[in-house]
Design a protein that fits this description.
The chain is an alpha/beta fold. It is built from 9 helices and 10 strands. It has helices at 2-23, 25-55, 62-70, 73-76, 106-113, 130-138, 149-166, 190-198, 244-261, and strands at residues 79-84, 96-99, 118-123, 142-144, 169-172, 202-207, 214-215, 220-221, 223-230, 267-268. The strands form 2 sheets. Strands 1, 2, 3, 4, 5, 6, 9 and 10 form an 8-stranded mixed β-sheet that branches. Strands 7-8 form a two-stranded antiparallel sheet. Strand 7 and strand 8 (220-221) form a beta hairpin. Helix 1 packs across helix 2 (25-55), helix 2 runs antiparallel to helix 3 and helix 7 (149-166) packs parallel to helix 8. The radius of gyration is 20 Å and the shape is globular. Mean pLDDT is 88; it is low at 266-275.
């Protein structure tokens, strides 16, 4: 009798799960979000010993391992990426990548196109995110305190020198915070100071709006295709700090035009997309 009761405790939730996934968009939203966060933490836990074995500690080369481990997550969430402009990433040496920032799902798009020897600049709070924070540190991610401008500038100056000394690329979200308003927020100038100080090109990357399949306030998370446009590089050679504002404006205008002209992402019911 006890065995039958124990079995029922497992069977009933398993039977209810498909029903809830089919009938409740709010349940799907929370289920996918929890799965995403939980699975990323599990993957980070698996990656930690692999990164230590490969590089002995903190090293941008660990991003190769992270990239391989994360790329399958999109299938579980019913997402696909349609990438154009790959040729613009065929640039030798260091450069700064800038992209728009809509949600934590951006990590999946980032890993889809992340070039070799490329890591990110991220908010300092991320380092405290359990196994994810530790794997970010092992991947060479540069952490900044967004609340202290002087600290951020110092980190950017150090990052510029590191880019040149170690021949790495850095990915920056110049909006500075997540934004799902259907447009771009004004850019902060840190990424452009970084590129000018290092005299390296900027490569803009634009992710299409998630609004057709992912709406945080409305608790909707369907399947969809995210279009990623890699835009031509913007050179900074010969520029000085006096050019940072105009460089920022130029980059913003180029990316905003691309963002507003990307067709809406395809959306389908929940579950993997089929081609």
């Amino acid at each position: 009798m006890d065995a039958a009761m124990d079995a029922a405790l497992w069977v009933v939730p398993l039977l209810l799960l498909p029903l809830l996934l089919w009938s409740s968009s709010s349940f799907v939203f929370y289920f996918k979000k929890c799965f995403y966060v939980g699975w990323m933490m599990v993957l980070a836990l698996a990656a930690i010993p692999m990164c230590i074995a490969k590089s002995g500690g903190r090293d941008v080369e660990n991003m190769r391992i992270i990239r391989v481990l994360v790329r399958h997550v999109k299938y579980f969430l019913g997402l696909r990426f349609d990438v154009s402009g790959w040729e613009h990433l065929q640039t030798e040496g260091p450069y700064v990548i800038i992209s728009n920032h809509q949600s934590s799902l951006d990590v999946l798009g980032l890993m889809e196109v992340l070039p070799d020897r490329c890591t990110m600049i991220a908010k300092k709070e991320l380092i405290y995110a359990g196994t994810v924070g530790l794997i970010c540190w092992l991947g060479g991610i540069v952490f900044i305190n967004r609340k202290k401008t002087s600290d951020a500038k110092s980190v950017m100056a150090d990052a510029a020198q590191t880019m040149l000394d170690e021949r790495i690329r850095l990915w920056v979200f110049p909006e500075g915070t997540r934004n799902q308003r259907g447009d771009l927020l004004p850019f902060k100038k840190g990424a452009f100071h970084l590129a000018v100080q290092a005299q390296v090109p900027i490569i803009p990357i634009v992710f299409s709006s998630y609004n057709s399949f992912y709406l945080r306030k409305e608790k909707q998370f369907n399947s969809g295709t995210i279009r990623v446009k890699i835009l031509p590089k913007i050179e900074t050679k010969g520029m000085t700090l006096d050019d940072v504002a105009s460089l920022c404006d130029e980059s913003f205008n180029v990316m905003r035009s691309a963002f507003l002209n990307i067709p809406d992402s395809r959306t389908q019911s929940n579950g993997p997309l089929r081609r």
